[in-house]
Design goal:
Layout lengths: L7 H14 L47 E3 L2 E3 L9 E3 L2 E4 L5 E3 L4 E8 L5 E7 L4 E11 L6 E2 L4 E5 L9 E8 L4 E3 L1 H14 L3 H15 L31
Antiparallel strand pairs: 1-4, 2-3, 4-11, 5-10, 6-7, 6-9, 7-8, 8-10, 8-11, 11-12
Helix pairs in contact: 1-3
Amino acid sequence: MTSPSRSVKFLVIAALLTAAAQAPAWSKPAAKPAAPARPSISDPYYRPWLMWAPLRDDMAYSPVGMGLVTSNAGYRTHPVTGQHGSFHSGVDLSAKLNDKVYCLLDGIVTRVGWRGNLGVAVEVYHPAFNLSTITGHMNAYFVLPNQWIRRGTVVGYAGSTGRSTGVHVHYTVLLWPDRQYVDPMAFLKEVPDYVKAMKTAGVQMAAARNIEAFKKAPPKAVPTHTDKDDLPEGEAEAAPPGFDAL
């Protein structure tokens, strides 16, 4: 499988810094949105727990476990249906039941709940780089839509919900605004560079602008349960641009 571009990271950061160079003198962006009051939710998968771990800025982490890959993103033979040429929208990472699942970049939770074949999933929008990350097949989730979470926040526990053959976490990365798939393993390797860039004025300004745009149409502050994955290309049997058949 080839990555969507040689480096999505550099394209995104270069665009942000170019825009910043043309902008007026930088001032501190508006305060990050506060975490919303937690509503009473009778969802068996929701746990109102707050857990966070300090992650080193210079290290590339896996969102769960040791980051051992059990199935790459791209075309594959589906482990459940046996279908050849099935497109896999993310990477599968091995885990033990109830391993902590971490958020690797600051962001806003946009969706939680049951999500078709992904089972229990959490989606987070990262405004600094206009990216979203989705973790699926979890056993529980700890965050709610509209909640601002920091790098190192535990978003839930690993599990085997949805269409799954065993305990693991599915990890998808999407680039906005067209929700184009990004090679998740390439993204994970580049996260330390993203963290470094987040300390620059240009990227902070971009994050502030994207947050303001986000606030105009925030998601509902309750879980969303659906029988569909709701990913680009529907069931994603056809590969999006940038992926070659294995």
